Amino acid sequence: MVLDPKKPGPIPKEALEFFKAKGLKPAFSYRDVWAQEHRRAFTVAKILEADLLKDVQDSLSDALEAGTPFKAWAGKIKDTFDASGWSQYGTEAQEPQRLRTIYDTNLRMARAEGQWERAERTKDALPYFEFNLGPSVKHRPEHEELEGLVLRVDDPWWEKNSPPLDYGCKCFLIQLSAGAAESLGIDDAPNEDYSANGFGYAKGGRDDGLDSALEDVE
User: Fold this and answer.
1) Mean residue pLDDT across the chain
2) Which of 46, 64, 158, 203 could bridge 11 with an S-S bond, Cβ 3.0-4.6 Å?
């Protein structure tokens, strides 16, 4: 499913439940919460106050549920930031991009998790995924190499290579029947691991050993 920031559309139930269940993890740097920690922890770099972080999480949860477009969400969250005195957006020129990153990354990751939950239930009828490039004008070369890749839903390669793969990545998966996959051509899993920026982690509940690593998540 492609996320159109202007018209996100209705959020799948699984994606909303995943996002609402995240605990809070105040952090100074985006690297302070890494890889699989993102499955259980909601964070925004440089927001160290739990109450403000919760306000941001709630605003995104509402945006997911209502299909709120970016500009409407950004206007409301800026009011929240201004009222709190938090101003770590960067320069005025950087501010829209910072807010866009917060919005797009969280919505895309939630939708990706929701897709995995559905795929686990429907893989008997739709046992394959196809990797597709998103609507970006320019794509990362390593993502272009993956376009059209067809592998079984339960192929372990997807665990660290299902989109979004990086900040700003708009790539997506389409679930296919066996017949459709065979007509396109089923691939062998690439050896390369294209995961970057901490996004290369198992999705859809495959989080062995994560509980002990996140004992301090509120």
Assistant:
1) 75
2) 64
In sequence order, the 6+-apart residues with CB closer than 8 A to the CB of 65 are: 11, 16
Bridge partners (DSSP) listed for residue 151: 129
Q: How far apart are CA 72 and CA 54, in angstroms?
A: 19
Q: What is the pLDDT of residue 19?
A: 78
Instruction: Break the chain down into helix, strand, coil percent, rounded to 5.
Output: 45, 10, 50
How far is the C-alpha of 40 from the C-alpha of 89, rounded, in Å? 24
Q: 148 or 86: which carries more pLDDT confidence?
A: 148
Q: State both tokens at 159.
A: 């665990």
Average pLDDT, integer, range 161-165: 84
Sequence-distant (6+) residues with CB within 8 A of 184 are 130, 148, 150, 176
Phi, psi of 47, deg, nearest 5: -95, 105
Domain boundaries along the sequence of the chain: 13-115
**Taking a C-beta distance cutoff of 8 angstroms, is the pair 158, 191 a contact?**
no
Q: Which of 16, 214, 5 is nearest to 113 (CA)?
A: 16
Query: Please, are residues 170 and 134 in contact by the beta-carbon 8 Å criterion?
Result: yes
Structure tokens at 32: 């302070």
d(CA 175, CA 1): 10
As a whole number, mean pLDDT of residues 13-30 equals 67
Q: What is the pLDDT of residues 90-110, one digit of tens each?
A: 556 656 788 888 888 888 888
Residue 174 has a pLDDT of 93
